[in-house]
Amino acid sequence: MIVIIGDFECTEVWDGVYYKKLSNYPFISDWEARTIIEFIEYEKKYGRECTIECENMNVLKVLHEKILNKDNYIDASRPKLITECTACPYRKGCETEFVCHTTSIENAIKIFDSGKLFSAINAKKIPVEQLIQEKRNAANDPADYFEYVMFSWGNCQAGDRLVMERKLGRFPNEKDLSEDFNPGIRFYFKYDELISHPDVIFEGVLPMKVKDELVLKDWLYVLVIPADFKHLLEDLIPLELLEKVLFIDNDCVDIWDWSEKVYTIVENYGK
């Protein structure tokens, strides 16, 4: 893997490259150092070595010093708001109180039947070699990425965007994400609770991942379902989850508006 440090639009992994956005380039916060260290450690776990690149030599020097003293940074506290990605027009960053797993209505029905979130391998029950070759793996993710249940930050729109992408079979355009936008089903979890899951792992890109599966009744904070799907899903939801379900009207202008509406409701849930 190649790690490139820079002033990108966001942090992402694509085709063997970890593009690490610094929120205040060229300065590296303790949290950003932690996530880079976590990425390197995760890749090493699966036998992949990382090389680090940056056009700013001082950034490389500082980062290498932090990596050599990784014990000082691996427990760095997460910020309340992460501003590596500022695409969100409302909050200008990622809120970190909650993490979220978003899926399609078809997958949600299967999840309700099992009461669990599954990794791609366990959900699709096909060889990982086949998953790697699927069109949906446009980022050319390695095999181990499919062994985990993945989570985004709670106010992020990436999960709904991915649901739309897989439904359309292409990258969604502006019209798809506004007047034609259909939200997915969002499973919300408290970050401070889910980090104690026995199979959680931190890999520096997503907030966290969980190996193989996650039992919803033990960890779910709240389940958000677009109100348009209520008649299809209400009778399929496990009894132990019913009190945690919110049916929310999609009266929003676009994916960003929906993400903000949902997150605001989740923030105030139970208060």
Describe the protein in words.
This protein is of the alpha+beta class. The protein has 2 domains: 71 residues, no CATH class; 175 residues, no CATH class. 32% of the residues lie in helices and 21% in strands. The protein is built from 10 helices and 16 strands. Strand 2 and strand 3 form a beta hairpin. The termini are far apart.
Secondary structure blueprint with pairings:
Elements: E1 2-6, E2 12-14, E3 17-21, H1 30-45, E4 51-53, H2 57-68, E5 81-82, E6 94-95, E7 98-103, H3 105-114, E8 116-118, H4 120-124, H5 128-133, E9 148-150, E10 152-153, H6 158-168, E11 185-190, H7 191-194, E12 200-201, E13 209-211, E14 213-215, H8 216-219, E15 222-226, H9 230-233, E16 245-248, H10 255-268
Parallel strand pairs: 1-3, 1-4, 15-16
Antiparallel strand pairs: 2-3, 5-6, 7-10, 7-11, 8-14, 9-13, 11-15, 12-13
**DSSP summary: helix tally:** 10
Give the proportion of residues in helices.
25-40%
Mean pLDDT across every amino acid position: 94
Structural class: alpha+beta
First-last Cα distance = 44 Å
Largest sheet strand order: 10-7-11-15-16
Written as H for each helix and E for each strand, in order along the chain, the element string is: EEEHEHEEEHEHHEEHEHEEEHEHEH
Biggest pleated sheet:
5 strands, mixed
Evaluate the radius of gyration. 19 Å
Number of domains: 2
How many E-type strands? 16
What's the shape? globular
Residue share in β-strands: 15-25%
Low-confidence stretches: none
